[in-house]
Amino acid sequence: MFGQRELKELEKATQIAEEVTTDHFALTDKEWAKSPFFVSTVGQSTPMVEVPDDCFAHLVYFGKDAEKKDHPVERCGYFKIFVNDPTILKWLKKRPGFGLLPLLTYVMTHELVHIARFLRFHCHPLERLKTGEEEIVTRVTHNILERVKMEGLIPILEYFQSSNRRCEYANI
Question: Tens digits of per-residue pLDDT, 117-162?
């Protein structure tokens, strides 16, 4: 599980991902506020959602709850990104040339691209369309991040651009 250092890297990666995704889609604060997102690691989470072992992160939408309509977050619905810290650490251990911050930046950008597409285009990854949506999100994530200057990011982009690896961690 992530320790303090890794959690700081996740926070930094989330900030970078939010900034570049916002810029790419020209999202406003008002649009983000319609469906806010929260980030938690598997290690921090109570087992309310089962995160597949073979993915880096799992995005879940928690819709409107009529019983909690007075609470703004519950009234609007929100997204929660569950970062699979044990899987990420295991993956990095097998690939010592890759860095945590670049990988987390990729993962968080990927998830925020999903959210941005939900907000902008009302995309929904139905099971029969999921592979197509993942392909689009992977391509958009790559296009966004290829302009970011970060040590170690290019090897991550190259790794996930390979078509046979693209869906290896499809839920990224």
Answer: 988 876 665 444 566 788 889 999 999 999 999 999 999 999 988 7
pLDDT tens, position by position, 15-63:
999 999 999 999 999 888 887 999 999 988 766 678 888 899 999 888 7
Question: Rounded to an integer, what distance in angstroms lies between the CA atom of residue 95 and that of residue 89?
Answer: 10
In-domain check, residue 106: yes
- Which DSSP letter does residue 127 get? G
Domain count, the chain: 1
The identity of residue 63, as a single letter, is: G
Q: Which domain holds residue 150?
A: 4-166
172 occurs within a structural domain = no
Residue 42 domain flag: yes
Q: Cα-Cα-Cα-Cα dihedral of 169, 44, 155, 172, to 10°?
A: 20
Contact criterion met (CB below 8 Å) for 81 and 40: yes
- Outline where 26-148 has alpha helix (H): 29-34, 72-76, 85-94, 100-121, 130-145
Q: What 8-state DSSP symbol labels residue 80?
A: E
Amino acid in the structure at residue 18? E
